[in-house]
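Long-time lurker. I teach an intro course on protein structure, and each term I like to show students one example going from raw sequence to a predicted 3D structure in token notation. This year I'd like something fresh instead of my usual example. Would anyone be willing to generate the tokens for the chain below so I can use it in lecture? Attribution to the forum is fine with me.
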Amino acid sequence: MQVAGHGLRVDDETRWRRDLARGASLLAAVLAGAALVFWVAANWSRMTPDARLAGVQGALALCVVMAAVLAWRGHRATESMVALAALAALATGALLALVGQIYQTGADAWELFLAWAVLILPWLAALRSVFLALLWAALLNLSLWLFLDGPTPSAWWRWGASIPSSAWLLGLNGVLLALAESLRPVWRDARHLIRRALAAATLAWAVAVAAQGAVQDGAGAVGLLALGLVPILAVYGAHVRWRPDPAVAALALLAGIGVAGFVLAPWVDSPEGLLGLALLVLALGLWAARHALRLRAALAPTVEAGAASVARDGRADAGSASGADRFAEDDAPWYVTALRVGILVPVVLMLGVWAAIGFELDSAADALGAGLLSMLPGLWIARRAAGATWREAGGVLTVLGLLLCAVGAWLTAGEGARGAALAILLAAGAAAYAGTRQFPVRLAAAGLTLALGCWLTMPLDFLFHLEDIQEAGWPAGLAWRLVALLALGAIVWIGSMAGARRACWRPLAWAALATAAGLAALLSLAQAQPGLWWTSGGGALLACAVLPGLLLGAWMASHRPALPAGPRLVAPAACCVAALGWMGAPVFAVALVGLVLGRWSGARLAQALSVMLGLAGLALYYFDSSDALVAKAARLGLTAVWLAALAIWLWAPWRLPGRPSGATAHRARGLPVWLLAGGALALGAVQFRVHHYEAILSQGRPVILALAPVDPRSLMQGDYMALDYAVRRQAEDWLREQEPVRAALRASGRGWLLLRRDGEGVWRLAAVAADPPAAPAEDTVALALRWRNEGLDWGGRSWFFPEGEGDRYAKARYGALRVAADGTALLDGLLDEALAPL
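-- Reply from a regular --
Happy to contribute to a lecture. Here you go:
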């Protein structure tokens, strides 16, 4: 017997315990890794640098040893072993960040991420886990991006990338995708997550390159377009013929349509041209959806034989849904639905702009009238038309009409008629949802109605009071709306599993959860006042945080034969207690709700999206300034320990197998060696770097340089001041008059600054050299530098300080460096105007 078709076996207590323990252990590993990063970034002043280093090294060693012990005991502990190895990989990054923080070697430098990727390779090779593979690929991407986009410490947050960076990142992800495909037999990746993630990254960078080419002129534009189109065609062809995967093929089709839209967009200079582009993109989208279904039907014998694939709403993707017209029904596969949504959004937006300009819609009455004129025919066509193409066109008209009605409601609310605006919006949204059977249309109708409805019920100007939220008085109301949306999404989701007739409500559940995620992100960005959530919004955030535990309890209670009363009560109660750990991270709580619902219904897409949303929620929690990083690290760490104890308790009645024999014994002996070797490599490499930095600080010559600081927050290393030296500007002015030296620096990639001390003890520029200088004079120092992105880089670009001590270091006017005999420099301290240490 199965739960909802794809759930756990309700008559198997062992499987229930195993899956609950696996989930608890993986969640504990994620929270423990986040706690370690938060703790390192806090730069806690009450603990010495040596003690902090010892703490992180000890945590890394403990994780490696425990993973090795589990590997030696047998294969049944695979999930826990992988979780420990993943935590060790995260601890490796935290250790590298801590070394960079202590020795002031730079904020978010590309070397940190590259070294991190290299050091986790032994564990990746030994375990071949999906998490480590995706982490390794992400680290390589970050390292290359930071290297190509220059030495700016805060370059990680820039959304865009230069043309060379986009091209190189495209090449990197293409190579990684080819490598993953060639090593496919050795990966434990039954869901093809590695392939699809790397294919999506490759296609995204290909579209970025082609889009940059679309706005260029001349031969360069043709080259960039070709550089973007060729990888798209290659990914499509490879995953149709060589490694059949209809999901990747559908993503490639969507990317190709995106490139076509970017190529034609610069030629649009009138409303008629915009209308033509929208219709062309719609036609291409219809063709792509039909083509994707044909590919799925053709590839079904080789791709989906022996198992039912999972549709985008969690139900089995029936093999009969292979006709070219099935994309207009509710049971289309998730990747076809994603393709249709990806086409629907830009088409409706272009049509909305065309309607607003072409018909001069400048009032609420105009917008409402145009909306009704579009929605009513659209609903009739979507319900009555015989062909899939006409039904899809009717759905587009319906969403366009709803969008125009929403604009009319917004304008009506701006005139003070909030109640009328809300009534108009609800009526239009309900008509669009009930009048069609298409999943994307229903999703758009529910999402637009819920999102704008939340806005209409809030104070008119709440979005403009983020800097003074306590006086604005809106976060508490927003938090309770978040709880209401989560409860609505959960109730509708559970109800949609009752049968095929109720499955029509699943788009509403998706829309409610998506809107809740947006509200949670807004709440995270608004948390700027310490203690706010323990007063006005604390109850709502607590209710949001405990909802995953309550859903878990409801799931288990609905299948009582599976577990005795003890585990059935203890596991949900423990999750509700653990909610105190993520109460301040509402996005993470929303992700856990989606994860439980996705697991309950067997919706793999919901689970995957929830995991990504949870990681994003932890990132937002990191940058939330309402509480200290040390406090957040402590809460997350205690929560991780609590969940680990729950996992151990769930596993307690089931002993691990004895020592294996034969081939399994050989693997059990080899795997611990690989794990321990990886740990020794990480700890040894970090210790070597520490020894090198200590030698520079103890033996290097002291150099004082004038600087100009600013203070952002690093991606992993906490609060810091980004430093800009006056001598760098002097060197740039000097090089403008010495073009041969600049050319030599550009060719070799490295050079030296010759510095001479003035009468006040500050070192000034004497010259810039491309060749190693001879033995400098007594009052001269040769500072080694690298030439990157037409700029000079010699390190010492940041000063990390404990959280909350920015005012103390805002008085810094000089940087004290230590320069080794080979020219390598480390920042040793900051000085005030009187050259006194801060």
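Some talking points for your students: Residues 701-831 form one domain. Strands lie at 701-710, 720-725, 750-757, 763-769, 780-788, 791-793, 798-800, 814-819, 825-831.
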